[in-house]
Amino acid sequence: MAYRRVVIKLGTSVLTSGSKKLDKAHMVELARQMSVLMKAGVEVVLCTSGAIAAGREHLSYPILPDTMAHKQLLAAVGQSQLILAWSQLFSLYGIYVGQLLLTRADLEDRERYLNARDTINALISSNIVPIINENDAVATNEIKVGDNDNLSARAALLCDADLLILLTDQKGLFDSDPRKNPDAKLIAQVQNIDDSLRLLAGGSGTALGTGGMATKLEAADIARHAGIEVVIASGHHENVIIKVVNKEESVGTHFSAIDSPLESRKQWILAGPAAKGCLVIDDGAANAVINQGRSLLSKGIIRAEGEFARGVTLRIVDTQGRTLGRGISRYCAKDVSQICGKHSDEIETILGYDYGDAVVHRNDMVVLDC
Ligand SMILES: Nc1ncnc2c1ncn2[C@@H]1O[C@H](COP(=O)(O)OP(=O)(O)O)[C@@H](O)[C@H]1O
Ligand SMILES: N[C@@H](CCC(=O)OP(=O)(O)O)C(=O)O
């Protein structure tokens, strides 16, 4: 086997086969493929969407106000139907499943993160498939991951997978949205996720999907920085899961893992807490940070955006608004607005204290491919 531990994310588009209901005939086929791999010794973690779609189906497509509470109602009803379906379908292959419903808050809190990891490891070592979805019924916007592409990437980091497979309704990442451009070409291999690639990835083409290719690229970027390979492929391609895991043929879009994965602290900065604001930096600072591996000093900061305390994760952006990276700020927003553009030696005089020369130290920063 080419891979030891695999996270497989199934989008609503795959689970419903483009209809308004769960396509159980297709779900059982996917369960079969996963069971084949498990019997061959591959450890499988499933990240499944589909709760909201299943909720609508179970309640016979009620006309509800488009509010958060009603989406949560649908997710609460649908999640139990979804896990019931998976439990029944995997049981046909003699496999038990265990459910983990997570929010961003679970992944940001170190103790809950480690607990979730222990649970996943315990399930895997008992040959039970951990099945993960966002806990939509309780998650508010503030504590949501928001889409299962990002959730599956975080799950892949959490459980130390070596492959993340994102299955969807397209053959992979195309050079434009194939729903809008019939001449769009499949991109078979991606070495670098940069802004030009991000521009190709649009939102969801359907009312049921969340995020489209844009969130799949975000997920791929998080995973590959942690040394995890990623494949985006069609959930309806014959034997897709088995072929990808066995590297039998080139299926979908393959993203190489970064050779020297980030140490776990930096993985945490990249995939952990939501960015609470941003630091806009000048060209000189951008060059120092990107090309020279330097810390971010106050002198190169043009302004701070958002309200944030010291110790929170921020985006670092250039003057054109491009995200260059993420890092933990040693100063709060109010402090940064007073010291930006000033030399580090002046910090103590201006603020009356200082927390070090760097606003974002190199060790607290992850630079992205631009
Ligand atoms: N460059 C692109 N390549 C492929 N698909 C794209 C691209 N840009 C946007 N999309 C859209 O992304 C959709 C898949 O994402 P989404 O609807 O969220 O599905 P899922 O439920 O599988 O997550 C496709 O149906 C397609 O319309
Ligand atoms: N958690 C939601 C799915 C969110 C989501 O990202 O959906 P999708 O884009 O279809 O993978 C649900 O179970 O309905």
How are the SSEs placed, and which strands pair?
Layout: E1 5-10, H1 12-16, H2 24-39, E2 43-48, H3 51-58, H4 68-91, E3 97-102, H5 104-108, H6 110-125, E4 129-134, H7 148-158, E5 163-168, E6 189-190, H8 195-200, H9 212-225, E7 229-234, H10 240-245, E8 253-255, H11 264-271, E9 278-281, H12 283-291, E10 296-297, E11 301-305, E12 313-317, E13 323-328, H13 333-339, H14 347-351, E14 358-360, E15 365-367
Parallel strand pairs: 1-2, 1-5, 2-4, 3-4, 5-7, 6-8, 9-12
Antiparallel strand pairs: 7-8, 9-11, 10-14, 12-13, 13-15
Helix pairs in contact: 2-4, 3-4, 7-9
Bound molecules: adenosine-5'-diphosphate and the ligand N[C@@H](CCC(=O)OP(=O)(O)O)C(=O)O.
GO biological process, one term: L-proline biosynthetic process
Function: Catalyzes the transfer of a phosphate group to glutamate to form L-glutamate 5-phosphate.
InterPro entries: AceGlu_kinase-like_sf (IPR036393), Asp/Glu/Uridylate_kinase (IPR001048), G5K_ProB (IPR041739), Glu/AcGlu_kinase (IPR001057), Glu_5kinase (IPR011529), Glu_5kinase/COase_Synthase (IPR005715), Glutamate_5-kinase_CS (IPR019797), PUA (IPR002478)
Mean pLDDT: 94
Helix tally? 14
Q: Return the CATH topology of the largest domain.
A: Carbamate kinase
Helix content: 25-40%
Strand content: 15-25%
The tally of beta strands, per DSSP, is 15
Bound molecules: adenosine-5'-diphosphate, the ligand N[C@@H](CCC(=O)OP(=O)(O)O)C(=O)O
Please name the CATH architecture of the largest domain: 3-Layer(aba) Sandwich
SSE order in H/E notation? EHHEHHEHHEHEEHHEHEHEHEEEEHHEE
Q: What's the N-to-C terminus distance?
A: 34 Å
Q: Oligomeric status of the shown chains? A: single chain
Major sheet summary line: 8 strands, mixed
Class by SSE composition: alpha/beta
> Strands across the major sheet, in which order?
3-4-2-1-5-7-8-6
Report the top-level CATH class of the largest domain: Alpha Beta
Rg computed from alpha carbons, rounded to a whole number of angstroms: 22 Å
Family: Belongs to the glutamate 5-kinase family.
Protein name: Glutamate 5-kinase
EC number: 2.7.2.11
GO molecular function: ATP binding; glutamate 5-kinase activity; RNA binding
